[in-house]
Amino acid sequence: MERISDIGATPYEPAPRGESLRKLRNGGRSSGLESLKFALSIVLDCLTFVVLVIPILVRYAVGLFVSPQKKKIAGQLALVTGGANGLGREICLQLAKEGCHIAVNDLDATNGAKTVDDLKKMGVKAKFFKADISNYDAVQGLRKEIESSLGPVDILVNNAGVLPLMSLREGKPEDIQKVLEINLLSHFWTIRTFIDGMIERRMGHIVAVASVASYLPQGRMISYVASKYGLRGMMEAFSDELYYEGLSDQIKTTITFPFFMPTRKELIDMLCKLKIIARVPIFAPEKMARRTVNGILCNSRQVFLPKIFGFGLKEYEFIPNDVKRLGRKLVFQSDIPRLMPLPSQFNMG
Ligand SMILES: NC(=O)c1ccc[n+]([C@@H]2O[C@H](COP(=O)([O-])OP(=O)(O)OC[C@H]3O[C@@H](n4cnc5c(N)ncnc54)[C@H](O)[C@@H]3O)[C@@H](O)[C@H]2O)c1
Predict the structure, then answer these.
(1) pLDDT for 108-146, tens place per residue?
(2) Pick from 179, 348, 345, 165: which is nearest to 273 by CA?
(3) 246 and 237 in contact (C-beta within 8 Å)?
(4) Among the four residues 230, 233, 279, 304, which has the most C-beta atoms within 10 Å?
(5) Is the CB of 214 under 6 A from ligand 1?
(6) 186-219 as b/e, with b when 16 or more CB fall inside 10 Å?
(7) Closest C-alpha to ligand 1, atom 7
(8) 185: CA distance to ligand 1 center in Å?
(9) DSSP state string for 35-67
(10) Atom 31 of ligand 1 has which residue's CA nearest to it?
(11) Exposed, middle or buried: residue 151 (CB in 10 Å: 0-12, 13-18, 19+)?
């Protein structure tokens, strides 16, 4: 394919269709016998699949009842983005409990220093690194700084994120871009930056903090939903690619889907404004952090809190929209109001 930046520079070439496409798909099979052989090979592939899938299903069924053996991460270095506050800070503390050394990244240096002090009191090495993870060059600089003072990163926890109740027509175009840069693109930058070291050492674990919004396409927060849906797709595809490259036994991935947590004040203010503070479940960030670290120890691909959400959220997509909206109205008692002015309303008295 042409370089992405060159798109449109050369005339578009349409794909073959009709007879030429049929010939390509036929793979040069000219006789009936060759076509029959081809059909039989597909039947054989299906039978092979059925035979090979049985031990995999048995392993999964056993896994439902037997807890996996936990791996040891003591002495490993974890980088936690957005580690100064909220869920990130709790993840730092839980990782330190397991004996991990911690590189705390954030833009908030004041609370970053407090987190580092608390981590050091737990007897592990810890250092604060100020860097904007939505900027690729800043992430490259972050790697150099961490490696020269603490060593290579074994566990990367991509937690930093913003939670604006901002939709498509609200805010400025740069605001929407920033949400996607922080909540989605930053994961590309950090993984690209730290994966080579993990591949060299043939060990590593990459965690992405997504949200239940990765499954709930909620109006009034389109940019956030898009970033978290994108993150889910990205992490699933990335995990698949590690498998293709023969690295899935050495480098593990975990994606977490938290529900509401009382982290920053604006979030709780927003739930109050929406008048749903008493009507939605709210989970302690300490509990989500514990589940996240447990997910690392057990090499879990996905982490939900509570576990039952894992089933409910996946089935949600099959529910007809009218039923979903009726259910939401019962929970919220109204439609979600617009909390940010439209651009046309910015300068109004
Ligand atoms: N709080 C919730 O209810 C909730 C629910 C679902 C998912 N989440 C997700 O959990 C993660 C953590 O959320 P939280 O509630 O702890 O948020 P928070 O706002 O309390 O903390 C996020 C931290 O990330 C830092 N940060 C933001 N942008 C950054 C950047 N570009 N570079 C470096 N640091 C940056 C902030 O300074 C802050 O310290 C987010 O990804 C969020 O989307 C939160």
Answers:
(1) 999 999 999 999 999 999 999 999 999 999 999 999 999
(2) 165
(3) no
(4) 304
(5) no
(6) bbebbbebbbebbeeeebbbbbbbbbbbbbbeee
(7) 211
(8) 15
(9) HHHHHHHHHHHHHHHHHHHHHHHHHHHHHHHSP
(10) 132
(11) middle
Looking at residue 341, its pLDDT comes to: 67
Residues linked to residue 207 through DSSP beta bridges, in sequence order? 157, 254
Cβ–Cβ < 8 Å for 260, 281: yes
The C-alpha angle with vertex 181 and arms to 176 and 185, in degrees rounded to 5, equals 140
Q: Is residue 134 in contact with ligand 1, taking CB distance under 6 Å?
A: yes
267 Cβ inside 6 Å of ligand 1:
yes
Cβ(84) – ligand 1 distance below 6 Å: yes
Ligand 1 centroid from CA 259, angstroms: 13
Cβ neighbours of residue 146 closer than 8 Å, sequence gap 6 or more = 77, 79, 103, 127, 129, 153
CA angle 330, 334, 338 (to 5 degrees): 140
Pick the atom of ligand 1 nearest to 209's CA: 41
* Amino acid in the structure at residue 153: V
> In angstroms, what is the span from residue 106 Cα to ligand 1's centroid?
10
What is the 7 CA–ligand 1 centroid distance (Å)?
Answer: 35
Tell me how far the alpha carbon of residue 296 lies from the centroid of ligand 1, in angstroms.
19
Q: How far is the CA of 120 from the centre of ligand 1 (A)?
A: 23
Query: What is residue 134's predicted lDDT score, i.e. its pLDDT?
Result: 98
How much is the pTM? Answer: 0.93
- For residue 127, how far is the Cα from the chain centroid? 25
Specify the 3-state DSSP secondary structure of 327. Answer: helix
CA distances from 128 to 16, 73, 112, 166, 323 (A): 56, 20, 6, 30, 47
Distance in angstroms (rounded) separating the CA atoms of residues 38 and 34 = 6
Work out the number of other CB atoms within 10 angstroms of the CB of residue 298. Answer: 17
